[in-house]
Amino acid sequence: MKRIYSLLLLVVFSLMVANIVHAQSTMTDQQIMDFYVKAKSDGRSVAQIVTQLMERGVTVERIRRIRRNYESQQKKEVVGAENISGISGKNS
User: For residue 20, which phi and psi values (nearest 5 degrees)?
Assistant: First the structure.
């Protein structure tokens, strides 16, 4: 009985430690944005930035979403808004 209790305690402790490590390895959207901006200003390619973020546990879809939002902010666009001015923003 004592051995089962010790084994159960070890498993629970291991799961708690793994959960804490995972929580610390995730980055917030703002941290990802800051990393992207700094890396871009340092002259890194998008491929290098994506690789480094993926090594830190960030998914490709999340990187794309945050990058779109960042680029929209740089253009002063509102994400999801429609151009109702009647002036085409595309060079056709």
Answer: -65, -45
Question: What confidence tens digit (pLDDT) does each residue in 43-76 have?
Answer: 999 899 999 998 888 888 998 888 888 888 878 7
Place of tokens 């002259």: 43
Assess contact for 5 and 18: CB atoms under 8 A. no
List Cβ neighbours of 27 (8 Å cut-off, separation of 6 or more): 35, 53, 56, 57, 58
Three-class SS state of 5: helix
Which single residue is written with the structure tokens 């945050």? Answer: 66
40: which 2 tokens? Answer: 């871009």
